[in-house]
Amino acid sequence: MRLLKREELLQLDKATLVEIILQLQEQVQALTKRVEALESQLHKNSRNSSQPPSTDGLAKANVKPKSLRKKGARKSGGQPGHKPHRLEPVAQPDRTIDIPVTGCNCSTAIDLTQMPVLGYGRRQVFEIPEPRIEVTEYRAEIKGCPGCGKRIKADFPAGVNAHAQYGPRFLALLVYLNQQMLLPAKRTVQLMADIFGQQVSQGTLFNAVDTCYGKLADYEESVKKSLQQAGVLHVDESGVRTAGSLHWLHVACTEMLTFYGVHKNRGKIAMDAFNILPEFVGRLIHDHWKPYFNFDCLHGLCNTHHLRELLFIFEEEKQAWAGEMMTLLLDMRDFMLARKNAGMTQLTNAEKAPWLTRYRTIIRQGWEDNPVIKPKKKKRGRIKRTKPQNLLRRLQEHEDEVLAFIHDLNVPFTNNLGEQDIRMIKVRLKVSGCFRTLDGARKFARIRGYLSTARKNNHDLLGAITKACQGAPIIPSV
Asked: Which of 329, 335, 363, 404 satisfies CB 3.0 to 4.6 Å to 411 for a cystine?
């Protein structure tokens, strides 16, 4: 709309002026909503939304850490009965150095070299030996057969194929440094040169990763079958820059197993391709990503996400119902944990009834504060809702999934397990920025899933990789 000068406005009739005022009111209303939306976006951070802490920027003074956990009765620090962890002397040291007594500081100046030893004062120093590579030479005997006259050579051990080669533990260390400790290839080979004095090519590292990846194929299928049979399964997904475009890293995990998969798609196409969720019939814990609801199983929603959204509505939009809902959810969680620690697996209907009544009462209050106003003009499509309305709708329509932890005490309150398993992959992306090839991303995902599973089952990671490189990976019996 063109801005009119004062003289032009004075010449307009009353009807035209009213029309202009109405148009300006519509513009002001639209601009006001846009400003509110932008201000709302500016006020979001890692505390009150699903944004990661890295998006908070350098102005972290404006994002004061504030845990949603309640302050406990116990003081900080070690608790009564806590076993201290400190360096203790060992009974059988690897090496002993005796320090002789040669004399005394008294005035007699007697030589004590030949005097008998009455005892020892002991101090132990824990130190690593100088790193070095041990080279083992296999010599296969060659003998002549008096019967046929042929020269017969003994067979070398399995895996000893070249005139000079690295052993499985050495190759496993390369994979460990690159895939678990997230060292880039160049720095990995530099570390081997600095510590062992051994110049290793990046090609050797890549071949070791390829070998480990290939020999984990059967292991990965075994983990998928185990995850299909799990009672509670955590899932999540996150974007990964791969081969110059956006791909998605999917995780499916339990307390003992981890699977990672990389796919071009984020939704059901990828989930079907990994063939875990189509066969799953237990309880699926996720963050309300709608494609998960396509699978015919029980569902549970992550309440950490709800608490963050409620915190934003409570602090930024000053809506009291959101604060009451936060308090209720946390109280329900504590109540559930107390019953679970007492050995219970289910709550009675009488125990659940007061909680459900409070939950529904708060939601009704939320709708009273955020009524849905139908537009005067009928428009196609869905009615646009505010963030509080969207959250209220989710909490109301998915009550059973939000409160699944109350109906079944084996269901966790959050999806933290899935988010924790996906976190280190994001660290890998921060180190290297991206995966150059899709093949490299898939290798990393399979090996990292194996390492995560080994860690959850208290296995030594270097030993686990060594076994994988030898073709005998650890397969958990869960």
From this structure: 404
- Give the per-residue SS3 of the chain: CCCCCHHHHHCCCHHHHHHHHHHHHHHHHHHHHHHHHHHHHHCCCCCCCCCCHHHHCCCHHHCCCCCCCCCCCCCCCCCCCCCCCCCCCCCCCCCCCCCCCCECCCCCCCECCCCCCCCCCCCCCCCCCCCCCCCCCCCCCEEECCCCCCEEECCCCCCCCCCCCCCHHHHHHHHHHHHHCCCCHHHHHHHHHHHHCCCCCHHHHHHHHHHHHHCCHHHHHHHHHHHHCCCEEEEEEEEEEECCEEEEEEEEECCCCEEEEEECCCCHHHHHHHCCHHHCCCEEEECCCHHHHHCCCEEEECHHHHHHHHHHHHHHCCCHHHHHHHHHHHHHHHHHHHHHHCCCCCCCHHHHHHHHHHHHHHHHHHHHHCCCCCCCCCCCCCCCCCHHHHHHHHHHHCHHHHCHHHHCCCCCCCCHHHHHHHHHHHHHHHHHCCECCHHHHHHHHHHHHHHHHHHHCCCCHHHHHHHHHCCCCCCCCC
Residue 333's pLDDT band, with cuts at 50, 70 and 90, is: very high
pLDDT band at 457 (very low <50, low <70, confident <90, very high): very high
What range does the domain containing 319 cover? 303-370+387-413
Assess if residue 318 is contained within a domain: yes
Q: Is the pLDDT of residue 44 over 50?
A: yes
